[in-house]
Write a structure and sequence with these properties.
With 467 residues, this protein is α/β, with parallel strands linked by helices. It has a domain at 88-387: Metal-dependent hydrolases (TIM Barrel). Helices cover 41% and strands 23% of the residues. It contains 17 helices and 17 strands. The longest helix is centred in the C-terminal third of the chain and has 20 residues, at 446-465.
């Protein structure tokens, strides 16, 4: 009896000192987005129902199912139930301030549109203040429609950068170099000097702005200017942005001047190199496509602008088959006439079905890839943006998918590409920062920006009447 009592007491002591199980540690984060359908656009193209995205600082630190919502606590928790959570859209080619020329000249061929209307309007109106006003309007439009990163080439790019940074947007911004006098440079040499100053201002790891060099096009830049642009881009290891084989007239002009097509001419001039982004790429030959692949050139497909100017249809299927990264761009709003990337996805998918008479030519999922992860690859930023993955920058949008024009939904890619509109975007994060929540802008004043745009309309009209 005594032995049994001793054994019982020993067992009691052993059990009583055994540590109690502890709850799993809860980690802290800045923001949790939970409950939505997470369209990751990662390598496996995972779509996570009732998913969770966790943000700390400027990065995504976790992507997964509902279990993550219990693992983390955050100051900001957003319920995305009934919505899609997806990467922000990447506009691979535009001219932001040109929104103030929206509708100024329509239904014209490209060269007539440029030489008779756009270049004269720019000569009379483009100033630092006009560029800032136009960029504010462009950023308002892009953020409202879910664009989180854009590639721009224009004048006074340092002012475009300042406004873009204040709005909280991500951008690759290229100072335009061109052979004839333009608002911020009377010569291409001065343009190159401006570009170098701009690069020096933003080259040191800026969180949002990536400076670039932007020779306008093969038909507006002499060979020595193109070579100088490549030298400058290589000196600072920055992107180089240009228009390339945009329409057949360009081919004719370059051939008459140099006896070769634009892409062989550009190669001979030494423009090709790392981190290059070519806008449009409408009329490459099969040999040209091999050259673009050789230099890992990213292509910006602008279907609506190319259609409206009757420039032609880029051979996107062939470019992609060759391994060239093809993103989507709006071009400037003077030739589109908006900066709506949802429209570009819808148009691109349908355009290539029609022209190839093949409904499988460019599926909805491919169009969405071109606006997100493939767009990021086209601008050589796929390691940082374009998909929702741990370690990537927190550029993401929340999109309502419950509106009448979206229901019923059987395939989410189809819904997002063929039925969703820019106005369905509810919330936008860039670099982990909320820029729009529930359609309310947090970094820009929409009322003031709209008034400013209306004021500029009168100024521009008056300038065109003056002799």
């Amino acid at each position: 009896m005594r032995l049994s009592l001793i054994l019982f007491l020993a067992l009691f002591v052993t059990v009583s000192v055994r540590p109690l199980p502890t709850a799993a540690a809860v980690e802290t984060a800045d923001t949790i987005v939970r409950g939505g359908t997470v369209v990751t656009m990662d390598a496996g193209r995972r779509v996570i129902e009732n998913g969770t995205v966790v943000i700390q600082g400027d990065k995504i630190i976790a992507v997964g199912g509902p279990e993550l919502a219990a693992k983390y606590k955050a100051k900001t928790v957003i319920d995305a139930t009934g919505r899609a959570v997806m990467p922000g859209l990447v506009n691979t080619h535009t001219h932001a301030p040109m929104v103030l020329f929206r509708g100024i000249a329509d239904d014209l061929m490209l060269q007539e549109w440029l030489t008779k209307f756009i270049f004269p309007a720019e000569a009379k109106n483009v100033t630092r203040e006009m560029v800032k006003a136009g960029t504010r309007l462009a950023c308002l439009e892009m953020i409202s429609g879910g664009t989180t990163c854009y590639v721009d080439m224009y004048y006074f790019e340092d002012d475009i950068a300042a406004v873009t940074e204040a709005a909280g947007m991500r951008a690759i911004l290229g100072e335009t170099i061109i052979d004839f006098p333009v608002p911020d440079a009377l010569t291409p040499q001065l343009g190159l000097q401006n570009a170098e100053k701009f690069i020096q201002q933003y080259k040191t790891g800026h969180p949002l702005i990536t400076p670039a060099v932007a020779p306008h096009a093969p038909y507006t830049c002499a060979p020595e200017v193109l070579a100088a642009c490549r030298k400058l881009a290589d000196k600072y290891e920055v992107p180089l942005v240009t228009h390339l084989v945009e329409d057949l007239k360009e081919n004719d002009i370059v051939f008459q001047k140099y006896g070769m097509r634009p892409i062989p001419f550009v190669e001979k001039a030494g423009l090709f190199g790392p981190r290059m982004i070519a806008a449009h790429v409408v009329h490459p030959s099969p040999e040209d496509i091999l050259t673009l692949k050789k230099y890992d050139v990213g292509a910006a497909h602008c279907p609506q602008s190319n259609m409206k100017l009757a420039a032609g249809v880029s051979p996107v299927v062939e470019l992609r088959a060759a391994g060239i990264a093809v993103g989507l761009g709006t071009d400037g709003a003077a030739s589109n006439n908006d900066l709506d990337m949802f429209e570009e996805m819808d148009t691109a998918a349908k355009l290539h079905k029609l022209t190839r008479r093949d409904p499988t030519a460019l599926p909805a999922q491919t169009a969405l890839e071109m606006a997100t992860i493939e767009g990021a690859r086209a601008i050589h930023m796929e390691k940082r943006i374009g998909s929702l993955e741990t370690g990537k920058l927190a550029d993401l949008i929340i999109v309502d998918i419950s509106s009448a024009h979206q229901l019923p939904s059987y395939n989410l890619y189809s819904t997002l590409v063929y039925a969703t509109k820019a106005g369905d975007v509810e919330t936008v994060f860039i670099n982990g920062r909320l820029l729009m929540r529930d359609r309310r802008m947090l970094t820009l004043d929409p009322v003031a920006i709209r008034k400013e745009a209306i004021d500029y309309r009168k100024r521009i009209l008056d300038s065109l009447k003056a002799k």
